[in-house]
Specification:
Blueprint (H helix, E strand, L loop, with lengths): L4 E6 L4 E7 L8 H16 L5 E6 L13 H6 L9 H12 L5 E5 L2 E3 L1 H8 L2 E4 L4 E3 L13 H9 L1 H10 L3 E2 H7 L4 E2 L5 H13 L18 H18 L5 H15 L1 H16 L2 H15 L19 E4 L3 H12 L4 E4 L3 H20 L5 H8 L2 E4 L10 E4 L5 H14 L5 E4 L6 H4 L9 E6 L8 E6 L5 H13 L3 E6 L6 H17 L4 H11 L5 H8 L1 H14 L9 H7 L12 E3 L5 E3 L3 H12 L5 H4 L3 H21 L6 H12 L8 H8 L1 H15 L7 H9 L15
Parallel strand pairs: 2-3, 3-4, 4-6, 5-7, 6-9, 10-11, 10-13, 11-12, 13-14, 14-15, 16-17
Antiparallel strand pairs: 1-2, 7-8, 15-16, 18-19
Helix pairs in contact: 1-3, 4-5, 5-6, 6-9, 6-10, 9-10, 10-11, 12-27, 13-14, 14-15, 19-26, 20-26, 23-24, 29-30
Protein name: 3-hydroxyacyl-CoA dehydrogenase
Family: In the central section; belongs to the 3-hydroxyacyl-CoA dehydrogenase family.
Catalytic activity: (3S)-3-hydroxybutanoyl-CoA = (3R)-3-hydroxybutanoyl-CoA; a 4-saturated-(3S)-3-hydroxyacyl-CoA = a (3E)-enoyl-CoA + H2O; a (3E)-enoyl-CoA = a 4-saturated (2E)-enoyl-CoA; a (3Z)-enoyl-CoA = a 4-saturated (2E)-enoyl-CoA
Length: 722
């Protein structure tokens, strides 16, 4: 079966209209690209064709190269065309070098390969709202169809590098100002205007320009050298672990110094290397894993349609509740925020207001939009206004009896179809709903703080939650721009449970002699936003200890109990809020090491009878990373084996979006498979002999290691869901 095609339609005016067709976004599969070449050859052969217009079907030019073909390219299963075929033979020597002029008529989106096709045409006409960009670097590659050579010649080197390195598209209006498009028109006039423009070129009324040889936007060699130098310094600072942004700069530079043709060959060679790199494989895995979280067996394959959620209530206006309310009003949901008294209610409403105002300050929202958005929020002190809500999200403190009381009240006041969701991060949902008869509509909606910014939403189902309610919440999750992941009900769900050994491993190392600041440095260098100790400071010792207690109670055989934090708490240290935790903080929240922390570590050692291990006092960065993250992998294996997660890729997304695990390493399970189950098992087994149960490999890991199987391979028979 061919994946996509192009059609050619010649009008009485002598213009051939070539249309790219490959729903949903007209992506450029190899089939589409071969078909584009055939359509072009036909248009050039035919005497009744004077000029050509290229467009995309159904209001979308093209979303770029077909990412699903990457797997085939990486494994060699797909026959690739001969070297340089697309960028040189098709786009440069057929499209751009044609004896007949062509115009790209752009609506919707022209991204990646789509924009590269448009840039090979002799002019571009766009709608004001179309998105144009080269986002390839998000996937660990560089533009591969001439984009690194044409974009700098159309918009200048500086702007071209910015667009490629940030992967951010520009709208049609901005693209017009930059010179990337030649004219803006409304969608219904797009094709007719492009036809006229093409005929004007034939008649010499409009310039006929080959982008590849344009030089008026290029800086002098001296200036260009400075731009490249600045770009490289920025990349090394912001993304020290990534090679492909530097390769992108090299390829642009080759074209400027040695000419565009040499640039095209360098682009081709570099693309072929990068597409096979671990970074590209990891980022492509994350790309598909993120889109796959909404596929849940026996839930999303039953033909259920999400019901309309018109109004939502949020209970609790603290940090979490106000963040959730903010996320909802930002996506046009009317929200009722309920608190227990006037003072708390006002504070909650003010928090939402402040969240929205910070968007206005950053230029992400107009004052008018702010007022309209804030007006969607209403406060309440009782349940009277809950009689017509479609969903309630409870976000009060982690207190079982309080939550049980709230859910019993909700059952009385809310309509029978209303979804009853809790944002608990640790309490068993069966316990939360134990005083109700509505178990089929009770579900966890676990947001991460700050809720209006963090992209992950854990949807927690019990064995009684109805598939319809899950489908409804998946839909709300997507509408409020979160990546929803469906997980089973257990202590800590997926993210917090996988990562509870993260801080505990760090404390174990510190008590046995590893420098805590070296641990944070190694973990940050690995690609985490911050190390475990800086994270505990940020979250606050109170929350940290409360969460740790849940795991110590539920998994006593594999938790490491350290006294370091409780001892610091006794001295009124609580983390960043008190300006003293594992670090000292100044007015600007800048952290610096605190030599006093040593005394707490020494005291904790004497209490627990631990002595300094000379090997751990001189750990390499590689060993630090493995001793911190392999216990996380071990727990992730348990979560997977118990059926808490539907698939390993969901745990990858959870680790990246919930904890900031570096996406260019592919997520926790994907990264683990790059080390291999045998290796991970042997390391954990070796450490458990010295340090006990905390490192003991779980049964699932032992089985996979014995079989030499990847950890991510599907669990044949996931244990019955909790």
């Amino acid at each position: 079966m061919a994946k996509g095609t192009t059609t050619i339609d010649v009008g009485a005016d002598g213009v051939a209209l070539i249309t790219i067709i490959n729903p949903p976004v007209n992506s450029l599969s190899f089939d589409v690209l071969y078909s584009l070449k055939e359509s072009y050859d036909q248009a050039l052969r035919r005497d009744d064709v004077k000029a050509i217009v290229v467009t995309g079907a159904k209001g979308k030019f093209s979303g770029g190269f077909d990412i699903s073909a990457f797997g085939g390219v990486q494994t060699g299963k797909v026959d690739q065309p001969k070297p340089g075929y697309i960028s040189i033979d098709v786009l440069t020597d057929t499209v751009e070098a044609a004896r007949k002029p062509s115009v790209a008529a752009i609506d919707g989106l022209a991204l990646g390969g789509g924009l590269e096709v448009a840039m090979a045409c002799h002019a571009r006409i766009s709608t004001p709202t179309a998105q144009l960009g080269l986002p390839e670097l998000q996937l660990g590659i560089i533009p591969g169809f001439g984009g690194t050579q044409r974009l700098p010649r159309l918009v200048g080197i500086s702007k071209a590098l910015e667009m490629m390195l940030t992967s951010k598209p520009v709208k049609g209006t901005e693209a017009h100002g930059l010179g990337l498009v030649d004219s803006l028109v409304s969608p219904n006039e797009l094709v007719s205007s492009a036809r006229r423009w093409a005929l004007d070129m034939v008649e010499g009324k409009r310039p006929w320009v080959a982008s590849l040889y344009k030089t008026d936007k290029l800086d002098s060699f001296g200036e260009a050298r400075e731009i490249f130098k600045f770009g490289r310094a920025q990349v090394r600072r912001q993304a020290p672990n990534l090679q492909h942004p530097l390769v992108c700069i090299d390829v642009v530079e080759t074209g400027i110094i040695s000419g565009p043709r040499a640039g095209l060959w360098k682009e081709f060679e570099s693309f072929q290397e990068l597409v096979r790199s671990d970074t590209c494989k990891s980022l492509v895995h994350i790309f598909f894993a993120q889109r796959g979280t909404t596929k849940v067996p026996a839930v999303t394959d039953l033909g259920l349609k999400p019901r309309r959620v018109n109004k939502v209530a949020v209970i609790g206006g603290g940090l979490m509740g106000s963040g959730i309310a903010t996320a909802l009003v930002l996506s046009n949901y009317p929200v009722i925020l309920k608190e227990i008294n006037e003072k708390f209610l006002q504070a909650g409403l003010d928090r939402v207001k402040a969240n929205l105002q910070s968007r206005v300050k950053k230029g992400k929202m107009t004052q008018e939009k702010f007022e309209k958005t804030f007006s969607l929020l209403k406060g309440a002190l009782d349940y009277e206004s809950f009689r017509d809500v479609d969903m309630v999200i409870e976000a009060v403190i982690e207190n079982v009896s309080l939550k049980q009381q709230i859910f019993a009240d909700l059952e009385k006041y809310c309509p029978p179809h209303c979804i009853l969701a809790s944002n608990t991060s640790t309490i068993d949902l069966n316990l939360v709903g134990s005083k109700t008869r509505s178990h089929d509509r009770i579900i966890g909606a676990h947001f991460f703080s700050p809720a209006h910014i963090m992209p992950l939403l854990e949807i927690v189902r019990t064995n009684k939650t109805s598939p319809q309610v899950i489908v409804d919440l998946l839909d709300v999750g997507k509408k409020i721009r979160k990546t929803p992941v469906v997980v089973g009900n257990c202590t800590g769900f997926a993210v917090n449970r996988m990562f509870f050994p993260y801080t505990q491993a760090a404390l174990l190392l510190v008590e046995h002699g590893t420098d805590l600041y070296l641990i944070d440095k190694a973990v940050t260098k690995f690609g985490m936003p911050m190390g475990p100790f800086r994270l505990v400071d940020l979250v606050g010792f109170g929350v940290g200890v409360a969460t740790a207690m849940q795991f110590i109670e539920n998994f006593p055989e594999r938790t490491y109990k350290s006294m370091v934090i409780p001892l610091m708490q006794e001295d009124k240290r609580a983390g960043e809020t008190t300006r003293k935790g594992f670090y000292l903080y100044d007015d600007k929240r800048k952290a610096r090491p605190d030599p006093e922390v040593k005394k707490y570590i020494e005291k904790a050692r004497s209490i627990s009878g631990v002595s300094v291990d000379p090997k751990l006092a001189k750990l390499s960065e590689k060993d630090i990373i493995e001793m911190i993250f392999l216990p996380v992998v071990n727990e992730a294996c348990r979560v997977f084996a118990e059926g808490i997660a539907v698939k390993a890729a969901d745990l990858d997304i959870s680790s990246v979006m919930g904890m900031g695990f570096p996406p260019y390493r592919g997520g926790i399970m994907f990264w683990a498979d790059s080390l291999g189950s045998k290796y991970i098992y042997s390391r954990l087994e070796e450490w458990s002999k010295t340090f006990g149960g905390f490192f003991k490999p779980c049964a699932f890991l032992a089985e996979r290691a014995a079989a030499g199987a990847p950890l991510s391979a599907p669990v044949e028979q996931a244990k019955s869901r909790m």
